[in-house]
Amino acid sequence: MSEQKENVQLSERKKQILANVVELYIKTGEPVGSKGLINAAGMSVSSATVRNEMNELDSMGFLEQPHTSAGRIPTQEGYRYYVDHLMKTREVDELTKRLIDAGVSSAVGDPEKLIAKSREILANLTKCATVSTAPVGEMTLIRKIEVVPVGVYSVMMVLLTSNGILKSRLCRSDTEITPSVLEKFYGIAKTFIIGKPAVEITPAYIQTLTAAIEGDYFTMLPLLAAVSELADSVGDSRLVLGGSSNLLSFKDYGSGAVALLEFLSKSEPLTDVINSSKGAFDVRIGSENKYKQLESSSVIVSKYSVNGDDTGTISVIGPTRMDYETIIPSIKYMTDIVGRLITQALEE
Amino acid sequence: MSEQKENVQLSERKKQILANVVELYIKTGEPVGSKGLINAAGMSVSSATVRNEMNELDSMGFLEQPHTSAGRIPTQEGYRYYVDHLMKTREVDELTKRLIDAGVSSAVGDPEKLIAKSREILANLTKCATVSTAPVGEMTLIRKIEVVPVGVYSVMMVLLTSNGILKSRLCRSDTEITPSVLEKFYGIAKTFIIGKPAVEITPAYIQTLTAAIEGDYFTMLPLLAAVSELADSVGDSRLVLGGSSNLLSFKDYGSGAVALLEFLSKSEPLTDVINSSKGAFDVRIGSENKYKQLESSSVIVSKYSVNGDDTGTISVIGPTRMDYETIIPSIKYMTDIVGRLITQALEE
DNA sequence: ATTAGCACTCGAATCGGCAGAGTGCTAATT
DNA sequence: AATTAGCACTCTGCCGATTCGAGTGCTAAT
Q1: In the structure, how far is the CA atom of residue A251 from the C1' atom of nucleotide D20, in angstroms?
Q2: Which pTM value belongs to this model?
Q3: Which residue of A has its CA nearest to B173?
């Protein structure tokens, strides 16, 4: 709607004003007026001057007024400029650091628990919703398959990946699962499945196996089908949402909160939201998210790396009016520590 | 506050009126007036008569008025009387039955999936929140322990119970976990742990074991600690909440919905709520639940039995103004089918 | 370039009045 | 004795008018 926001050069004072409007609005939730801005930011110019500047920021597209005679609030572009250029990228707060360290310490050693814990901590810290995904990537390998007999016709199939993720499923066959059946299955698994990337163990791949198997493969089929299902669910990347009820306390959403929670509770679109982030760290503000349900929310996605390769994510979802300046360092610190601890836990 | 509600005998007409008020109020959410009641229920008496009867039901404590000149709404005792004596206990609706059957069919054979699915289906069907617990009881035994090497110092410990519940945890030791360590561990497990009820495998019990172990048990400790932790988490009964965002759509809760969701998101009190239900089927209305956060909600807890002994639960939580008449048959049908399917899946 | 001053706009809160739904009571009816 | 018609009464929700205050944009002076 206005000129190139990216390359535009703002005067020092405009930057200062924009930053202060954003920060004050984040703090109070009320539109910021010229008068209020001056004494909150301790500026030594008159309100008229500020009004002039604000007016220009307005027509540049960084600020807007909810109605003619109200203060200003940041537009989506305003937040964007703030996050990109104005925000102080400070270190994580000492207290926060302590809280995170103490919180994860109870879960060191177990990736799954660790991730759950990190979600919980971050939800409490940010008062937003958090989403975590397990560390699954293209190179996540099937490390081990274990078949635990449960009955004559059924077994518990357990699959362990190179990232310490374990998936299991009860599997029932029409025919008796004898030790020799199991032995044959282990043979097949060892040759064709163990060590392969989980993403490659598709139903189609299982199909090709049946040709390679000598003798009757009917007895193998239920077992192999279970394996492919499990391998597939590894790729599900185990997305979990937490703290969503936090979002209800933000007056920003008004009655739209219901629709938002509804949206977040479905895992397919949420997966898409998380996966469409670029790079190791990504802040997406308002309609930068392609889903209209998120148009007044921001999503911060931060990736953690395990052994430098496979990656999971920890994300924070909240209103565009979220406290970027403290949330961003927190989530960065959290992903860093989670990545390191999981790597360490999986160390040979 | 008024005379003995339990033993009180209501005239046929009073019963009819109470039932109709409850049902109409459940349907519309609006206080029910004498006029509206007559033409909704097709009664052939005048509104004045109905008013007189309502007045008496009012002073008996079954109905109340939100304000002097409004229609009547049921009190908690009104709902109670309705559920106990007036409600038609009809069979589950044919369509619902189909939906449930179709829904669970995709998860037959895997208890965990089945339970998750049942939660989801029931949440959609009832538009309320649902809670499920896994089938864990006093007699849930440790069936098998599997130790999968992950690295030199770490293993994935997998524990399978007699109910098909599988729990796992990464476990890291300070000392090298050699095959001989594992062999020794399996020996201990076989003798002292396998076949025992999960609830008995406490840290204290592990303590007593260390005395029984010959040679250095330091290498065993991390492994045994992991086992006890897993056994303990079996008793956690794996409570999961679903469909909580459904509750937001009920205007009944108004702004209290936030607090309710907050309450439900914490698992300790929720566990308590579920566990304090008596018998195989229990409806608790409003303040019959001891938590004040539930004073305008009803909780329906239904137990399913696996092999007749261990039991898990499926529950529905919603406003006191919920559609008992259709929800109750649905949840009963659901628990019945879930119990049967799990029993079948675990059959020898 | 900055600022003081002023007219103007718009939302939020307050208030009275009005319409409607529903009640309880009384007196008439069956 | 039970039912009903009729009526006065009460309370809520809604509409419109009014006021109040915060904040703006513009103009003219510094």
Answers
A1: 25
A2: 0.89
A3: A109
